[in-house]
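Q: What does the assembled structure look like for these inputs?
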Amino acid sequence: MSAQQVLISIQSLKKYFPITRGILIRREVGAVKAVDDVSFDIYRGETLGLVGESGCGKTTTGRTILQLYRPTAGNVVYGNVNLVKMKGQPLRQMRRKMQMIFQDPYASLNPRWTIARIIAEPLHVHKVVKGTKAQKERVSELLELVKLDPYHLNRYPHEFSGGQRQRIGVARALASNPEFIVCDEPISALDVSIQAQVVNLLEDLQEQFNLTYLFIAHDLSMVRHICKRVAVMYLGVIVELSSRDEVYDHPLHPYTIALLSAVPIPDPRKTRARQRIILEGDVPSPANPPLGCRFHPRCSLAMEICKVEKPTWREAVPSHWVACHAVK
Amino acid sequence: MQPLLEVKNLKVQFNTLEGVVHAVNGVSFTVEEGKTLGIVGESGCGKSVTVLSLMRLIPEPPGRIVDGEVIFKGINLFHINKPSMQSIRGAEIAMVFQDPMTSLNPVLTIGHQIRETLMVHREFSKQEAVERTYKLLEMVGIPLVKERYGDYPHQFSGGMRQRVMIAMALSCSPSILIADEPTTALDVTIQAQIVELTKKIQNQMGMAVIWITHDLGVVAEIADRVMVMYAGYIVEEADVYNIYANPHHPYTLSLLKSLPRVDSKRYERLAIIHGSPPDCIHMPPGCPFQPRCEFAVERCNIENPMLRSIEENHRIACWVDVETRRTR
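A:
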């Protein structure tokens, strides 16, 4: 691989959702801090994994990068432009380069549209091809790319299985020739024997078109397989970020260690022999996160300082970033 | 010794507008006292229908138990009347469902719902039932039981709700606990909590567990025996250590090969199983897995293999020996 080139730089990104009270006179009474000061770079051509439990802000991060949610604060620098400062037509131009694949292949396709119309929509919006004939050709080409037969074109989403629908979602995401795709749990709704099919397809397409993926998932085994680097999120903040082997074989943050030990291994001897760290309790509410380090109430290494001071985001080992007071 | 539960040649069908769905096609297995049986399979393979029909919870019509016997402690559950079945269901064989939100009544307090079971099945007075409910909630690790007793399901998190479901299932000290994908909707850290909790309670109370899941990792952790189902058939059944070390059915083998591992650095392309499972209305001739099987021989197209023993305590339904690729 050549020298790594930063495609997107996320700087101190925050997204708060207001909590309101009152019917006629709406008052803001608080905020859900879904993403609270997150910074990282995404390199061109890589797959960056974003893992964490539900409600930790993974999806919000993905959507805020794409400007589907406008951030409360922070910058998203794509190439040499700051997406946060853009709006209207220039932003729309940029959107062509950034697409998304959604989690639920049943909810993300319009049930009243044919496959042809679903896949052609981004072509319309971004005026990628001119004329109906060129458009038809492009749609067939896209279907072939995701290994679906073009004779399905005039069918409706309900006629397809989950795996096939997810392929349609992938074809739609590819329609505008994007550089960057946010894959938001693209396989978690699929059956085990279908997951590998979609993962292999995503890998092939990445190679073919030099795509960059932000792969959001909670299946840590699949993330290890598909991602070159992995970021671990907890309650709106990133707690650890490094290459997959570093994160999985030498995790530093106590949350990462506990999370990895909870993943079952399909080998009864191994999975029963290892030591597990069972985290007590649940993830606290992001509307009222704990002071200091957000993980301290559930952390076995928590010290006094963890209750009052936020740990800094630092490079503890070369290219291995972590936010924890206990890590030397 | 007579097993605690014996299912013989269970066949269940559903009449639908499109045709007859052959959901379960001659399934036989036993459950030993105090042991855990893991049933693994993809969605639609008949694993839930199998356990629902042994509880006689299949809605009839459209469902129909066509054939089979279920012998529990020497009694054939298909031959007893409804009130007798009612006294077994919940008291002797209890069940925990996948989605704890839809299986709890949202307008009744947690305490009320657990208490009710005890008052119906054990004819406890209200005072006794309340005391026992506190004990049960404590046993499943709910903090501050006296305060939480009067809370409603929406005030609990997903993991806590699943604990409440387990408390309710355990209320009458059943001999068998059936858990139908109890951790599928939960995060891995919470899943680990529930798995540990189930093991602990099983040790204390000595009940048998039937754990249904699509996750081969969880089964490796919890089961003593594993049964793999495909399209309404048992395709392989063995001791948990044996089935992971020496899978003999091509389906089990391919499934294990297609799984990425959290503990492995081998990043080669995932092995895939082509196609998708049959829809159980239009079953392929011969073996149901034959269209997707890489080992298929001519005989597989014509004749469906019966489940038979290949070694002690290891049954498979396949004509081919996957090691030599010859017909057995």
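The mean pLDDT of chain A is 90.
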